[in-house]
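Review form for a predicted model. The reviewer records the input and the model, then writes brief findings.
Reviewer: anonymous (R2)
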Amino acid sequence: MYYPDELVEEVRQRSDIVDVISSYVRLTRRGSNYFGLCPFHNEKTGSFSVTPSKQMFYCFGCHEGGNVISFIQKYENATFQEAVKILADRAGMALPESTDATARERENRRAQLLAINKEAAKYYYAQLRSDSGKRGMEYLIGRGLSDETMQRFGLGFARSTRDETYRYLKSKGYPDDLLRESGLFSFREDRGMTDKFWNRVIFPIMDVGQRVIGFGGRVMGDGEPKYLNSPETPIFDKSRNLYGLNIAKSSKAKNIIICEGYMDVISLHQAGFDQAVASLGTAFTSGHANLIARYAKVNVRQGEIQRYKDILLCYDSDGAGVDAAKRALSILSEAGLRAKVIDMRPYKDPDEFIKGLGAEEFQKRIDDAENGFMYEIRMLEGEYDMKDPSGKSSFITDVATRLLRFEDPVERDNYVGLVSYKYDVSAESVNEVIKKQALAGTGVTIKPRPISTRNGKNDMIEAASLPQTRLLSWLCDEPAIYKVVNRYITADDFADPLYREVAAILFEQLEKGHCDPADIISVFPEEEQQRRIAEAFHQSIGDLESLAMKEMALRDLMINIKQLSLTRNDRSDSDFGYIIKIRGELEELKRVKIDLQDIDRSTAFSQKEE
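Model under review:
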């Protein structure tokens, strides 16, 4: 559904960000801002900030940020339109039908694709329970699944005829262009449309709203591939959905179990472990980790404490499963989450384990799950000759590098103690190696971030952004200084393309006598752009106690921005005339004394509300 910009703006303005976020996060007022524990990564001290004057949120820990709409998008895993609808309902606003033909068509196609998937799921479901589905039913019964479990997961069967599902859906009136877009069919000029899924047991994939968004199919017999999954479609994104999460999200269990495949999830649910989920024919991604973080959070209020369910990895015990577990542990760590690993040995996977030893023994394995970091270390141990002193020394150095990832010194010391005890090395020696690795600049970043915020930029580029972001933030905090800034700096002086666009919009707002950073965020559709803008508007200029210090700091910022302007390489007029012009303006800035005396003190340097 498309909503006009002016309507979206009205919804945003009628949705006070403190009021909205406080219904999700416990906030405590500090001065003019509010702080709480970030809902997007695991933390012990509140670094999540909500600024009423800017109608923005920003986390100083994981660097997530945005306005009230982007908060709802991130927290509820919602589309932009869904977030607007949630806020409109909350504000008691009735949203009109879309007047944009293109947007209406897009939403209509999405609705039709969902309807096609639903109809296909019903068809597959019926086929499994018919005479023609006997082979699929025998397979599932042979795997130990009950009728109740098959029904709960909507399992079905695609018969061997290669166009039967196509002919069925055509009889329901769906056109070929939509059927091709659904991902259920293959198309060749010489053969036309054929079913992608045939002679397979079918696993419908549902989103958290219980809508069928895709399918998985297990071939009957020796065909390849053994498991086939729906391709990416307008309604199916493998990296943002987890199989079984539609059920697991409501589980009362104190943990979430991440598996590799459909049957692992189904077997665990049937055994009573309804907290199991699996990635969908793809490697575990940061999108999956962020989704897990959202549903692993326990909404209990114990002072300032926010608890998370344990996250347990239950991957195959073979080499591929070990590699997958190590990758998932790293991704979860980057998302600020700690995970444990369930030992499946002597069985390969959870399905085999449940059949072999039963649910009670599996619960014991859950209770004894190995700490994720110690699992990584145990796997790492196999890469070194631990009987050779030099091999063991290299191993400890590698371990020390990995210990740098822990920001909390108490947590790091706990792991140092475990490593020291297990490998018969003094804690003092391990800490000494850690210090050497830190000084050498090796190892991972001490503070993990759920989302990559720098896109590989080096420190020099990152430092170059600071003058630009600090000036933008200062202008939002104290708009009156624009009267001075616009004498020397234009939006075109901002070297970073994104900040240049932001500055252009902000300067236009300030020319009209107002400043609305949350509105600026709404202009940019990309999540990474919104995050960077929110981060820019939350930069600190430091403690400037006197007017003279403010004047000096402002001049230095403008000089730095003017110098950075010379580094732009995207201009068509990059000739000597331009360079001379900028250098002339730069020399003038270096000579001038910035005077803030004539600025209205009540607006220029107002004290923060206590």
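Findings: The chain has five domains: 5-91, 103-235, 245-369, 382-439, 459-604.
Further findings: The chain has 26 helices and 18 strands.
Recommendation: see findings above.
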